[in-house]
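User: Design a sequence. Structure:
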């Protein structure tokens, strides 16, 4: 089955959660179906869902008999144990011959190369593809289709598709995330349930209040986005050159999904038959009546702002909502002495001879912090590509000034977490001109590796590359990264297994308040359009910082120079008691996330870690005399097995 408009193929791609649902959906008006197998996909939370090996074989035969395609999701991050399981599973899938696999972890690409497999590969939305260089890099690695970032508008998609020639897949209907793909670590830090490993507990759909400037605002569900609804905009989707129109819903029931698919199928056919006389609204009222949430076109036509937030009855069971609540507000666990001792024992078991004394790196947010890091003789100083307001981005003159006084401290320039074509133009000009007095770059996305690997600056992979196993680490190293930051989602067992098996230089974030969520959505807009309902000061950060508040704590949200929001821990990550054992695992560098601290607070923290690394800490106290600046200390995801 195939549809064409002006010679361009259009595919309607439908989800199926079980074999029973697949049987109904594949007989509906879709052109292709995607589903997960028994392991290694992003829908592992619900028993009875996903297909068995036998069902996969049968499903492929049914679909191909109908001249329809099947894509199988192998789209979560792999632990070291998963890597071994993946070898056998990928061999089975290669022999079964689906039309493509949808993947997130770079380990899949490495395994396919290593095993000589020929099954086609599509890049999952969890790869967060958002620029032309990323598309080129994935094409070089054998990827034939890219599912675009959820934040990509249609005009950008059109431009990237035309310039790259790559097939693009775009979500057109269903449940969306408020956070950039694979940039949400909230669930893993609070529950030990990784959103990048198919186990998200959806803290984005908790009931929050927003505080800022001493006032409380009635935001209710400020992160809970509406469902995507592009039914009335199929002409614009087709004009943009999108190859595949993807419906979300592997957890939806059969009747709902078949009805939805048939509505979209009928609309596409009607438009192809008569584009001038096309009626956009034929099934709109019926789709609206049967919705799971209110509808939005999300980022298809630009940043939607607060219009994208589902404020009505989210998670309550009233009106049209199903009332399905995955979790309720939960505080990050406190660091406990008993858990620290368990971790130290486990890490010591996995230890190996350290190659050298670990270095200490500090990421800062302004020049005062940067000068302090140099003054204290830290090994590396990281200047971020995303600077929290009210500070401003580091200028070329700032970099030169720091380079002139850095002494033995290595100076690294970070790149923005999300880079569009404008960002690449700006950094091209900065990095391809006169030689900067920096020792390297902090790389945040695959496209930046491809663009700047010939620029002559050493490259370190940042935390959001989500390196979770030795295969993905090896692939990135092969592309030119000299050091990699360990995924922040690793539980104790996964961390011990990975670090003991990986021989590449690794960095671990050991202290601070790293971002739990990174989003295009501007939470500060709530305070600009809503009237406050009460007065209340922030407990741990200044009142000019926006805070998301529940009865379990307060998470500060900082906005960067691009207007993007970074939701941080309410507590501080602290691995100080375990540095010796981490050193025994061969960790090359420990990083302090220092952006939110005053210079005096940062001075105390740096001194404590320098003493611990140097072996001069004489404190009997577990924390070396450190006291929390914010709501307490936490071990993050390492507290979970």
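Assistant: Done.
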């Amino acid at each position: 089955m195939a549809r064409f408009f002006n010679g361009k193929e259009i595919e309607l791609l439908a989800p199926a959660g079980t074999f029973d649902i697949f049987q109904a959906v594949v007989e509906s008006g879709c052109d292709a179906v995607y589903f997960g197998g028994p392991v290694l996909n992003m829908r592992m939370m619900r028993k009875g869902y996903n297909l068995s090996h036998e069902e996969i074989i049968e499903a492929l035969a049914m679909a191909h008999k109908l001249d329809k395609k099947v894509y199988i999701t192998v789209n979560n991050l792999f632990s070291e144990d998963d890597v071994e399981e993946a070898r056998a599973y990928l061999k089975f899938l290669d022999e079964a011959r689906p039309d493509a696999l949808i993947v997130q972890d770079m380990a899949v690409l490495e395994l396919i190369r290593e095993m000589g497999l020929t099954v086609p590969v599509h890049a999952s939305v969890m790869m967060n593809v958002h620029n032309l260089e990323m598309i080129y890099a994935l094409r070089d690695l054998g990827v034939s289709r890219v599912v675009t970032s959820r934040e990509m508008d249609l005009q950008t998609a059109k431009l990237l598709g035309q310039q790259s020639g790559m097939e693009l897949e775009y979500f057109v209907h269903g449940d969306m995330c408020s956070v950039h793909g694979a940039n949400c670590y909230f669930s893993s830090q609070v529950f030990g349930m990784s959103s990048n490993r198919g186990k998200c507990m959806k803290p984005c759909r908790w009931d929050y209040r927003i505080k800022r400037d001493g006032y409380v605002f009635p935001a209710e569900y400020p992160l809970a986005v509406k469902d995507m609804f592009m039914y009335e905009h199929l002409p614009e989707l087709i004009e943009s050159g999108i190859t595949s129109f993807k419906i979300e819903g592997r957890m939806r029931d059969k009747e709902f999904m078949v009805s939805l698919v048939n509505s979209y199928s009928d609309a596409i056919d009607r438009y192809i038959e008569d584009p001038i006389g096309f009626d956009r609204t034929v099934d709109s009222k019926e789709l609206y009546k049967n919705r799971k949430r209110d509808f939005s076109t999300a980022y298809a036509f630009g940043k939607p702002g607060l219009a994208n937030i589902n404020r009505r009855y989210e998670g309550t069971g009233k009106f049209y909502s199903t009332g399905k609540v995955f979790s309720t507000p939960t505080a990050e666990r406190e660091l406990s002495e008993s858990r620290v001792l368990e971790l130290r024992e486990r890490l010591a078991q996995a230890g190996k001879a350290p190659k050298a004394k670990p270095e200490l790196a500090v990421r800062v947010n302004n020049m005062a912090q940067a000068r302090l890091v140099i003054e204290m003789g830290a090994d590396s100083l990281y200047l971020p590509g995303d600077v929290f307001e009210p500070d401003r981005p580091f200028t070329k003159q700032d970099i030169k000034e720091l380079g002139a006084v850095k002494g033995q401290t290595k100076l690294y320039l970070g790149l923005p977490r999300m880079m569009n074509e404008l960002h690449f133009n700006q950094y091209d000009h900065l990095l391809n001109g006169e030689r900067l007095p920096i020792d390297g770059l902090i790389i945040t996305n695959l496209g930046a590796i491809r663009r700047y690997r010939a620029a002559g600056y050493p490259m370190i992979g940042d935390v959001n590359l989500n390196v979770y196993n030795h295969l993905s680490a090896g692939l990135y190293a092969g592309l030119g990264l000299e050091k990699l930051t360990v995924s922040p989602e690793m539980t104790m067992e996964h961390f011990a297994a990975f670090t003991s098996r990986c021989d590449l230089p690794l960095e671990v974030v050991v202290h601070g308040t790293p971002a739990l969520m990174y989003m295009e959505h501007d939470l500060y807009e709530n305070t600009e359009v809503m009237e406050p309902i009460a007065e209340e000061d922030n407990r741990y950060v200044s009142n000019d910082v926006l805070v998301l508040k529940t009865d379990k704590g307060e998470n500060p949200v900082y906005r960067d120079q691009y207007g993007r929001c970074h939701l941080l821990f309410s507590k501080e990550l602290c691995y100080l008691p375990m540095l010796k054992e981490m050193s025994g695992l061969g960790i090359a560098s420990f990083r302090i996330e220092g952006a939110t601290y005053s210079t005096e607070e940062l001075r105390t923290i740096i001194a404590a870690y320098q003493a611990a690394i140097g072996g001069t800490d004489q404190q009997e106290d577990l924390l070396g005399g450190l006291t929390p600046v914010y709501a307490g200390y936490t071990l993050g995801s390492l507290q979970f097995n």
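The domain at 337-512+576-634 is CATH 3.20.20.70 (TIM Barrel). The two ends are 47 Å apart (CA to CA).
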